[in-house]
Amino acid sequence: MSILSRLFGGGSKPAPEPELYKGFRIFPEPEAGQGGYRLGARIEKEVGGAMQTHRMIRADRIQSAEEAEAFSIRKAKQLIDEQGDRLFG
């Protein structure tokens, strides 16, 4: 995608709705690359009146974009279960 397309929104798909989980918002954001899609997600939660964000990127690769989104959400939920608010420092 060219820089002009990015600036003016051409060719981009609409932002996904977040998955809500235990007070966190999970936005699946797998990254396309050679060999498939790398798992990734943005995890957000309001803490003390401020929005906190954690970017999760995994080395796992999945062939399909839809499967990569589903696995990204599953991994983000696992991370939330393991770390909770500690994700934000």
From TrEMBL:
Domain of life of the organism encoding this protein: Bacteria
InterPro entries xref list: Transcription_activator_HlyU (IPR018772)
Protein name: Uncharacterized protein
Species, as recorded: Roseicyclus persicicus
Lineage, top ranks: Bacteria, Pseudomonadati, Pseudomonadota, Alphaproteobacteria, Rhodobacterales
